[in-house]
Amino acid sequence: MSFTLHPTLVQWPPCSEKPLKLQVSNSGMASLHRGHPWLYAEKIKDANQQGKPGDLAVVFDAKRRFVAIGLYDPFSHIRMRALRTSKPGPIDRDFFAGRIAQALARRLPLLQSDTDGYRMLHGESDKMPGLVVDRYGETAVVKLYTHAWLPHLCSCLDSLLQQQPLERIVLRLSRGMQQHPEALHGLQDGEILYGAPLIKTVTCRENGLIFEVDPIQGQKTGFFLDQRDNRAQIETVAGGKTVLNVFSYTGGFSLAAARGGAVEVTSLDQSGPALQSAVRNFALNNHVPTIAAAKHLTIEDDAFKAMAELIRQQKRYDLVIVDPPAFAVRRAQVKDALNAYGRLAQLGVSLLTPGGDIVLASCSNPVSPEDFRQTVCTAAAAAGRPLRQIRETSHPLDHPLDFADSRYLKCLFAKA
Ligand code: SAH
User: Fold this and answer.
1) Active-site residue 363, yes or no?
2) 315 C-alpha to ligand 1 centroid (Å)
3) Which protein residue's CA is at the shortest distance from atom 9 of ligand 1?
4) Rounded distance between C-alpha atoms, residue 416 and residue 387, angstroms
């Protein structure tokens, strides 16, 4: 080990010496064969020993051929996350270093765009299932979705630091993990795993724009990095326009629109702290003449209510951006989510000047791109403002799509 990491990580009890052998149902096997890295608890028929979080677990088929090896987590419904499928091989420090190197190499093109806010590791799609690392300048935020990474984190972070110098690493834990504090050996959400304590926010650059990021109090790991390319698109169409940015968070789209020459930008969000951060982000970028010249307004309210009120006041905007939080995380929520997307599309087009531009995004994984598109098109048409010249975007380079079901982000650019 060459870096001084958190002592709890360094002293983490070792995993079981021998991997668990799992007997898996046919459907579980088929899913692993298809390349999906998750093995759900109910697909496991038997195990040869009790497993601890982070133990290796291996699956063979009826003919004793290797199917997968991965990390075991007795606390999670996703009982094993596969690291290798099709070919067996060691899972050790070199293995993790290799996966990290591949992930970082994929992101090299981003570094040419004055960007140091990006996702370094995107879990499943970078073949490190359940482990996400976001970089904000010299600070990295490690977000874990399974206890299974904890025994391996020391080698992973040491390899990461060797490949990518950083000043600080912050730990964030999924809600599921926080429900089992007994398996955290005292580690807490927001813990500093490496480097100096975080006394205030950090900053990152996205295509030259500066954003403050709060990796501990902020939403997600502090910033919605996945919208970078869509924000860059907005910059190219915002010149001379009045803009309404609904679900603005800390003003990502607002800043892009302002730099692109928007005359007035309104950030609308229900979170006061997010809007205060958006105001500070405008100040941080005040050296950009178009941003200094743009008028920035904020509305702190529920989006549905505030948009209806703006319609009542007959307010109109040349460009409306609607990027809500995920409305569905499970299949059963899809119907309600589609209703909400339809309602937002209707409200959004009703706030547009004739021939105005609308941008509608969805980050609900179980909502398909087809259903999203059809729903918002139908809703816009029903409001008497059918969408035209529709363009659809997908994931940015640092959020790769490497297995079925990994797509969650959908974004439509249209005129109405
Ligand atoms: N577009 C943003 C990310 C949006 S995340 C960006 O580019 O960074 C979703 C945002 O919606 C969050 O800031 C959250 O506070 C806000 N939000 C959630 N529910 C809301 C509601 N009902 N009304 C208004 N804002 C809401």
Assistant:
1) yes
2) 21
3) 325
4) 5
DSSP secondary structure string for all residues of 19-30: PEEEEE-HHHHH
Q: How close is the Cα of 325 to the center of ligand 1, in Å?
A: 6
Give me the catalytic one of 15, 154, 204, 363.
363
Q: Token match 């409200």: residue?
A: 347
CA nearest 58: which of 41, 42, 39? Answer: 39
Residue with tokens 């007795």: 74
Q: What stretches of 115-228 adopt beta strand conformation (E)?
A: 117-122, 131-136, 139-144, 168-173, 192-195, 202-206, 209-213
Q: Which ligand 1 atom minimizes the distance to the CA of 245?
A: 1
Domain annotation for the chain: domains and CATH numbers: 7-11+92-202 (3.30.750.80), 20-85 (2.30.130.10), 224-415 (3.40.50.150)
pLDDT in single tens digits along all 416 residues of the chain: 689 999 999 999 999 989 999 999 999 999 999 889 999 999 999 999 999 999 999 999 989 999 999 999 999 999 999 999 988 999 999 999 999 999 999 999 999 999 999 999 999 999 999 999 999 999 999 999 999 999 999 999 999 999 999 999 999 999 999 999 999 999 999 999 999 999 889 999 999 999 999 999 999 999 999 999 999 999 999 999 999 999 999 999 999 999 999 999 999 999 999 999 999 999 999 999 999 999 999 999 999 999 999 999 999 999 999 999 999 999 999 999 999 999 999 999 999 999 999 999 999 999 999 999 999 999 999 999 999 999 999 999 999 998 778 899 999 999 99
CB-based contact 24:44 (threshold 8 Å): yes
Q: Are 136 and 203 in contact (CB under 8 A)?
A: yes
Ligand 1 in reach of 343 Cβ (< 6 A)? no
Contact by Cβ (8 Å): 70, 84: yes
CB of 302 closer than 6 angstroms to any ligand 1 atom: yes
206: Cβ below 6 Å to ligand 1? no
Q: Does 337 sit in the ligand 1 pocket, CB within 6 Å?
A: no
Backbone angles phi, psi at 355, to 5 degrees: 75, 15
220 Cα nearest atom in ligand 1: 5
Q: Is the CB of 109 under 6 A from ligand 1?
A: no
Nearest CA to ligand 1 atom 13: 249
Please tell me the residue having the least CA distance from ligand 1 atom 21.
Answer: 302
